[in-house]
From TrEMBL:
Domain of life: Bacteria
EC class (word): hydrolase
Protein name, as recorded: 5'-nucleotidase
Listed PANTHER family: 5'-NUCLEOTIDASE SURE, PHOSPHATASE, PUTATIVE (AFU_ORTHOLOGUE AFUA_4G01070)-RELATED
Residue ranges of domain Survival protein SurE-like phosphatase/nucleotidase in the record: 10-172
Organism, as annotated: Singulisphaera acidiphila (strain ATCC BAA-1392 / DSM 18658 / VKM B-2454 / MOB10)
Length: 253
């Protein structure tokens, strides 16, 4: 791991600069390096890797020095690289309110911000909090878990062209900390169900009952463990993802 005094994190998301998940991520990164927030002015969930190229992008300073961008998560990463934080050493995105598992990574703005950084030679980690029906979100707990994952991943060597996608489980209150599992992406499609009324179609797929292949990220996270998946700009293989590695209490099995 690089010297902590040398690490400069840019924190962003797709839920907006004032989202509680971004506050949780900021707290998780405290003490590991300096943190700068460069985040969208509002929600951009599901925007994928959309970028703004034919319109001006306004940027204003928030009440605590945040850079608030009238653009997408990928725009935030680009502007950080270009002039807002040109000496950034890591991009951290999230913590998204909702999972970004399996094929979600292709439409996720949370993941796109990190991917944009990697395209330009800066490593990054995307964090998401899976939401189970009927349970309140515990952001302090999510922040603690994200901090544990951060400390592990920052110690690992970074291979250019790769980045990490982390999903936190929505565990019952009061339970033990979950194991951290390195696992591959689940390529199963999301349920394609729509309610059609005349010319209007409304998506009605059930995220909770999506297909899940054993030992892949959806199965791991839905099963109550933290899924950590290595993604590559040129594709993903089980071997490169660290398939089957489980970290619990500091040991790998």
């Amino acid at each position: 791991m690089r010297n902590e005094s040398m690490l400069k994190f840019v924190l962003t998301n797709d839920d907006g600069w004032d989202a509680p998940g971004l506050v949780a991520l900021y707290e998780a990164a405290q003490g590991l390096g300096s943190c700068r927030v460069v985040a969208p002015s509002g929600p951009y969930s599901g925007c994928g890797h959309r970028v703004t190229t034919h319109e001006p992008i306004a940027v204003r300073v928030g009440p605590e020095g945040q850079q608030i961008v009238d653009g997408t998560p990928a725009d935030c990463a680009r502007l950080a690289l270009h002039h807002l934080v040109p000496d950034v050493t890591w991009f951290l995105s999230g913590i998204n309110a909702g999972g970004n598992l399996g094929t979600d990574v292709y439409h996720s703005g949370t993941v796109a911000a990190v991917r944009e950084g990697v395209i330009n030679g800066v490593p990054g980690i995307a964090f998401s909090q899976y939401i189970a029906r009927g349970r309140p979100l515990d952001w302090p707990r999510a922040s603690r878990w994200a901090g544990q994952v951060l400390q592990r991943l920052l110690k690992m060597p970074w291979e250019p062209g790769t980045f990490w996608n982390v999903n936190l489980p929505h565990a019952e209150p009061g339970g033990p900390d979950p194991a951290i599992v390195f696992c591959p992406l689940d390529p199963s499609p999301l349920p394609l169900r729509y309610q059609v009324a005349g010319e209007v179609s409304t998506y009605s797929g059930d995220y909770q009952t999506r297909a899940r292949q054993p030992f892949r990220d959806v199965d791991v996270c839905f099963g109550g463990r933290i899924s950590v998946t290595l993604l590559r700009l040129d594709g993903l293989t089980d071997k490169e993802s660290g398939h089957g590695l489980v970290f619990d209490g500091g040991e790998a099995s």
